Each structure stands twice: as C-alpha cells, then as structure tokens.
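Morning run. Coffee first, then this:
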Amino acid sequence: MKQYSLTFIILAIVLLLLLSLDLNSARPGRKPNVIVILMDDLGWHDVGFNGGGLKTPNIDRLTESGTILKRFYVSNVCTPSRVALLSGRYPGRLGMSDGPLSPERMDGLPERAFLLSEFLAEQGYSQIACIGKWHLGHADAKYHPLNHGFTYFYGSYGGSLDHFNHMKRNELDWHKDFKSCKDEGYTTDLVANEAVRFIEDRAEADPFFLYLPFHAPQAPLQATEYYLEEVGYDMNRGIFSDGQARPLDRPRRAFEVGRGNTKRQTYRAMLRNADAAIGRILDCLEREGLMENSLIVFCSDNGGSLKAAADNGPLRDGKFSNYEGGVRVPAIIKWPASLSAPLVSHIPLAHVDLFSTIASLLGQTSPAGLDGVDMLSAVTGQQDVSERVIYLGKDQGGAVVKQNWKLIGEELYDLNNDPGEMANVADYFPEIYQALLAEKERMIIDIEQASIAKEGYKLQKDWAMPIK
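And here it is:
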C-alpha cells in the first residue's frame, strides 16, 4: 500500500475542508437573497442583544445563527450613512457628507455614484426593491431609486414625515414607483406589509435584493394605540408636549395624535411595533423556505437621538455627534448557509463594508474605489483588518478609529477601557496620537470632496420628482 507523509495527509484534509466550506457557503448556481434592514435613529442600548432594557425578541432572533457586530460604525446622520451603505464609499467622496437632505435641498446622488443595487442588477438580480425611506434626493427624477438599479420602490422620498398621514411640509410624501400613493396606515406597518408581499410574489427562480429602510423609531414620536397600551399608556395622565407629559382639559386618547404619556414611552411603543414588523418578515422568509440562503444585515443609520428619548447606553452623545453614541450602532449580519453558529465580533467594521461583502459573496471583484472590506471574511478571521483605519467624518474636527483607538478632533480615547470616551489620553500615548492625527488629516484631504449641497428647491405637490 502506498505510504503518504503526515504533511501530505494534513494538507489533503485542509484542502477538503476548504472545498467543503466553499461548497456550503457559495452554493454554486444559487445566488443568495440579500436583505438589508435599516432602522432610523435606533439607540445602541435599545435592543435586547446589546443588553438594553427594551424587549426586541424578533430583532434578537437574527442573532440565533448570526453575528453580533459590537463595533459597527456609520455616519452620524441619515443621508450620509445611506450614501455610504449603498455605494460602499465614504459620503465625502460623492460630495454628500453635509447632513440630511432637507426639503429645500436641490442635490442628491451624483451621476458618478454607483450603488449596490446597480451592481446586483449587473450580476443578474432582477428583483431589487427599496421599501421604506429613501432620503437620497427628491428634486429631480434622476435621483429616484428606479434610476439607480432598483426595480421597485414603495415609501417616502424624504424623512421625518408624519407616521400616520405621511405628510411632510403639508405635502403627501408616500409613493409607489414614481406615483403618489394614498395607502392608509402607519408607516412601519405599511413597510412590513409591502415587504411580505414582495417576498411572497417574487419570481421563485431568481434571487432578490430587498432594502428595507424603516422610518422607526425616528421622530416625530408617534405610535399606534395598540403598542402604546402595551407599554403602559394611561389615558388619565395626558400626552407629552415639549418633552413633558401634561394633563389635558379633557381625557384624550393617545391614538388621536400618536403620542404617549412621555417621549420614552412613545419611543418604546414605536420600537415594539418595528420589532413585530421585522418578525413578520422573518416568518415570511421561513414559510417560503428562504432563510437558509438569505444574507440579512441589520443596523441603524446613525446613533439614537437623545432628544427623541433613545438610549445609547454607555456610549457618549448621540445622533449628529462623532462620539461613539452617534456613530456606533446596533448591528447583526446573518447568513445561515455560511455562518451557522452565533458569534460576537468586536472587530471595527462600517457601513461602507456592505458593498464589498456582497461582491465577495458573489465571487466578484469589488468595483474600483470602494472603501470597504468583506465583513464575512473579517469576522471569520480569513482577512486581517487590524491595520485598517475607519473614517467617521469631518465633524468635530474629524474622527477616525483604528483597533481600540479613537481620535476625534485632538482627543484620543482607548475604547477598550473607556467606551464612554471620558478620558482623553492623547498626552499618555503621543506616538499613537500623532500617527492617528496624520492619518485623519490625510483622509479628510483624500475623502472630503467639494460639497454638492445646494438649497433653494421649491417642494412640488405630493413631493413629485420633476423630470428636467
């Protein structure tokens, strides 16, 4: 019998294991469905899997065979974050790092922007839906999702609209593709209804990309009667106004305006509703036999708004800030076909990584100019990202993260020992401080291109997008 060396046998076993992993994860001939669940202004400590006091059982279901990303970074406000998530590039590279798009803004995604949706269309995905809040341009039809690779759109062009009547600046901001839509209902429920319908009505032979940017729990703080009562609404206490609950001349039920006794109570009710909506979507995936080969990413667009009663836990500040509470958000990545065991990752990752992750998953080279890495390779240790520097934006003098170190302006923090960023240790670690300062300044120069933000747009009836 032919003899084989121990080294040869070990190499053969390793090769077989690698082939097995590749077969199990890549699933030749079966491209995965991709589902991105994006919450709006969700607090880092407001989910069960981060140890918060609020119950989010359906969101927590994603952790059962998913990876909790304990250090997932985004931009500190919505529009720039959405740009980065869908383009795989820091928003400054596209001139879109200057805050959220207000109704007066005339700008939107520039023509050079190439989104994940457009990439997936090139890879043979024929069902590509955006259901929820767009917020990437409304002043011209060239900014519409259908002109950026999506095949279906349902939801709002802007943000912070009334959750019940879908009005913003006295105009209806609710649409189906290019047309105004007068569907009645609470935003979270409508988004969930449409997502379930999209999944059930899909063409079974083809994979799909479903981008679900929920409106909740962003202000205005409005919740349905059912969920307000579930979290203890008391009609006799009145509804909050200017941040306080005040008694009214007559008892008034919360569902008349969507407000509970306090902001926090209303926020809790909104999140309960959103959690139930996500549960319905997960149930649908399981009924349809799609869960195993669906990559699901869950995160928030930015940190929770402290003015709107979000809880970012031990992290400092919130929305609009480059401190951890504004840029570090709850996040999970789940793909049962590849990551079957639940994991917790403390590796710094970011919104710009989604595009590169999907490209790698499909066995494709990422388009030139992306700023991201493959999250799956990073969390499984196949890719070393220890030297990576994540750019968080130019606000507050600019901020970057590398491993456990965070530089914001001229302040240096050791996040391993000080996640609340209470002690500036720049004087104690001068070499690290100087290295990160140089890197931050280099990235600002390299990334922050001239802003394309411009105001003066006159909002059209029903937020119609003009065709010029």
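The longest helix spans residues 263-287. Good start to the day.
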